Every structure is written in structure tokens, then in C-alpha cells.
Amino acid sequence: MRKIRKNHIRSSLILDLTPMADMVFLLLIFFMLSSSFLVEPGINLKLPKTKTAEIQTENKIIISIKESGEIFLNNREIKIDELEYELRTLLPLQKDKVVIIRADKESRHGLVVKVLDKAKIAGAEKLAIATEAETK
After folding, report:
1. Per-residue pLDDT tens digits for 67-119
2. What's the CATH class of domain 49-133?
3. Residue 87 to residues 28, 95, 104: CA-CA distances in angstroms?
């Protein structure tokens, strides 16, 4: 009996991954450019930093307090004496009656307390103090 031996030449299979890497980078660039970046409009403040900062400012009443003591209600400068009246007109239009205080970390503590007091007297049910997330 005669054995027939076939010479099998094994060809090595080479996969070129360059096109796949190109597609991954293109998708990465697409998603980076198409994602929306949330930039809070308004007054330039240095907010205090915390580990639990969240962005929740949609359709809320925002009071900003600058280091110099200037007070802004929804990006409009206002005096402390007018704040309670303005809040009384705005709060009934809000369903959850939340007031967010954005106080500069260098602003006077006493002024922040006065603003919190005026907001509570005007009928705010929830008060929040805005912060920035700590960077490691």
C-alpha cells in the first residue's frame, strides 16, 4: 500500500487591524464632537468645591452672590431689599419652589445667610447651595 502524502502549505492568516483602529478613532471623535457640553451661563463665580457636586439648574430660580457683595437673581442684578419681593413673584410660577444659591467662596457668610432667609420668607420650599466638583 502506498501512502499518498500531500504537501499542505499552511498559509498564515494575517489580519490587518488598521482599518478597524481608524474606525474606532473616527467614532470616538464623532461622539466627542457631537456631545453637548453644559456651560452654566451667568455670573463668573469661584464656587466652593465638594465631592458630591451635581448639575441641576434647569428651570430653577438662581441667586448669585459675588465676592464684592453684588446679588443677581437669574443673571439680573438686584438689591437685597428687593430680593424678597422678586422671589414672591417668581416662586408661584415654579412647581417645586426650589431656589439655588450660587455664592462665591470668598463672599461674606452673613450675606449668604440673609439671602437664604429672604428666600425662605418669600416661600421657597427647598434651598440649595451650588458647588463645583473637586478635582483630584
Report:
1. 899 999 988 999 999 999 999 999 888 888 889 998 888 889 899 999 999 99
2. alpha beta
3. 45, 14, 21
Residue 73: what pLDDT? Answer: 92
Three-state helix/strand/coil letters over the chain: CCCCCCCCCCCCCCCCCHHHHHHHHHHHHHHHHHCCCCCCCCCCCCCCEECCCCCCCCCCEEEEECCCCCEEECCEEECHHHHHHHHHHHHHHCCCCEEEEEECCCCCHHHHHHHHHHHHHHCCCEEEECCEECCC
Amino acid at 47: L
Residue 82, pLDDT score: 92
The three cell numbers of residue 112 are: 449668604
Predicted structure pTM score: 0.58
- 115 burial (CB, 10 Å; 0-12 / 13-18 / 19+) is buried
